[in-house]
Amino acid sequence: DAGVIQSPRHEVTEMGQEVTLRCKPISGHNSLFWYRQTMMRGLELLIYFNNNVPIDDSGMPEDRFSAKMPNASFSTLKIQPSEPRDSAVYFCASSLAPPGAPADTQYFGPGTRLTVL
Amino acid sequence: LAKTTQPISMDSYEGQEVNITCSHNNIATNDYITWYQQFPSQGPRFIIQGYKTKVTNEVASLFIPADRKSSTLSLPRVSLSDTAVYYCLVGDRGSTLGRLYFGRGTQLTVWP
C-alpha cells in the first residue's frame, strides 16, 4: 500500500487566499484525521471522520476552516481566507477503526507545509 | 480526558538505554497508553501500546506500574537514528468518541 497520500507537500500563499489541502487515506481505513503542527502548540487534532461522517470537529480553530470527506478515499481541508497564523504543517492520518476501538493505530501522511505570507 | 506530562527534551549517547517517563495521574479505567515517534519532516509513527504491566515489541518496551498513573517507554541501545520526538498518549478505548492528544512530546537527541 502507498500509505496516506497528501497533496500538495508544500504550499505558499498570500494572506486572504483560499487554500485547499488534500488527503487520500489508506484503502480500507474507516477513520480519517486532520492535524496541525506548530512549534508553539505541538500536534493538534482538528477534526476526525468515521465512515465519511465528521465525528469530532471541536479542534477546528474557527469558521475559516472547513473539512469534507465526500467518499472513503478522499478528504479536503480548506482555509478561506488564509492568515499568516495558519502557517503550519498539516497532517492527515487514517486508521482501520475509530479511537477507542481495536485496530485504532493511526497512520500519518507526509504532511503539507503551509506558509501564508 | 487524561492529560499527560512528559519531559520536553532528553539527551543520550549511542548504545545507551533510554527511558522516557510520562505522567498521567487522571487516567481512567478504559484508557490505554500509546507511544508514537516522529522524525523530522515526517508524520508520527506508532511504536507501542499497553494497558498495564509490561509490553515489548521489536522496537521498544513499555512499563506500566499497577496504579497506571505513569508509564515508561524504554529504548534499548539507542542509535543516532533514534533521534526523534516521542509522544505519550492516553486514549479512551471505551467510546468511539474518544480522541487522542499528542501535545509537544519529548525531543530525544542521541549523540555519537
Highlighted features:
heterodimer; A: 117 residues; mainly beta; 7-stranded mixed β-sheet; B: mainly beta
Can you walk through the features of this model?
The complex is a heterodimer of chains A (117) and B (112). Chain A is an all-beta fold and 117 residues long. Chain A is 0% helix and 53% strand. Chain A contains no helices and eleven strands. Chain A has strands at 5-7, 10-13, 19-24, 31-38, 42-50, 53-56, 65-71, 74-79, 88-95, 107-108, 112-116. In chain A, strands 2, 4, 5, 6, 9, 10 and 11 form a seven-stranded mixed beta sheet that branches. Chain A has a four-stranded antiparallel beta sheet with strand order 1-3-8-7, with no helix packed on it. Chain A is globular. The termini of chain A are far apart. Helices cover 0% and strands 48% of the residues of chain B. Chain B starts with 8 loop residues before the first strand and ends with a strand. Chain B has no helices and nine strands. In chain B, a hairpin with a 5-residue loop joins strand 6 and strand 7. A five-stranded mixed beta sheet of chain B has the order 1-9-8-3-4, with no helix packed on it. A four-stranded antiparallel beta sheet of chain B has the order 2-7-6-5, with no helix packed on it. Chain B has 112 residues and is mainly beta. At the A-B interface, strand 5 and strand 10 of A face strand 4 and strand 8 of B.
Low-confidence stretches of chain A: none
Q: What string, H for helix and E for strand, traces the elements of chain A in order?
A: EEEEEEEEEEE
User: What overall geometry of chain A do the principal axes of the alpha carbons give?
Assistant: globular
Task: Give the biggest sheet of chain B.
Answer: 5 strands, mixed
> What is the total tally of β strands of chain A?
11
Cα distance spanning the termini of chain B: 39 Å
Give the chain pair forming the largest contact, with residue counts: A-B, 25 and 26 residues
The major beta sheet of chain A can be summarized as:
7 strands, mixed
Assign the structural class of chain B, choosing from mainly alpha, mainly beta, alpha/beta, alpha+beta, or little secondary structure: mainly beta
- Overall, the morphology of chain B is globular
| Continuous helix count of chain B | 0
Percent of sequence in beta strands of chain A: over 45%
pLDDT average of chain B, as an integer? 88
Work out the radius of gyration of chain B.
14 Å
Contiguous uncertain segments of 5+ residues of chain B: 94-98
Helix content of chain B: under 10%
- Cα-based radius of gyration of chain A, to the nearest Å: 13 Å
Class by alpha and beta content of chain A = mainly beta
Strand order of the largest sheet of chain B: 1-9-8-3-4
Strand elements of chain B, count:
9
Q: Helix and strand string of chain B, N-terminal first?
A: EEEEEEEEE
